[in-house]
């Protein structure tokens, strides 16, 4: 179980606990968090689960794979150095306290 904070573009935050082996994307969908569309269901093909990892993050996240990197080149919101696809971020106790910022648009 990990506590994840989803910060919306207006600055409001939703904090939820998500169990492994879900992903950060699946945690958003399970908790009805708006701003994560996830059209492809988590296969790193659509980019509609784009998030920005908090710049102060020190938690261990998996390396970005080539497919994720390619998809992030075509997201609706600008790509930043902290951009990730939330479907590629597995939940574990190691990421307890993760903060992700939602972009203004996914489509």
Summary of the model, kept short:
The protein has helices at 24-30, 66-72; strands spanning 2-7, 13-18, 50-53, 83-85, 98-101. It is an alpha+beta fold and 107 residues long. A five-stranded mixed sheet has the order 2-1-5-3-4.
Commentary on this structure:
By secondary structure, the chain is of the alpha+beta class. It has helices spanning 24-30, 66-72; strands at residues 2-7, 13-18, 50-53, 83-85, 98-101.
Characteristics:
single chain, alpha+beta, 21% strand, 107 residues, five-stranded mixed beta sheet, 5 strands
Q: Could you tell me the radius of gyration in angstroms?
A: 12 Å
Helix content: 10-25%
Largest sheet geometry:
5 strands, mixed
Extended strand count: 5
Count of discrete alpha- or pi-helical segments spanning 4 or more residues? 2
Question: What layout of secondary structure does this protein have?
Answer:
Blueprint: E1 2-7, E2 13-18, H1 24-30, E3 50-53, H2 66-72, E4 83-85, E5 98-101
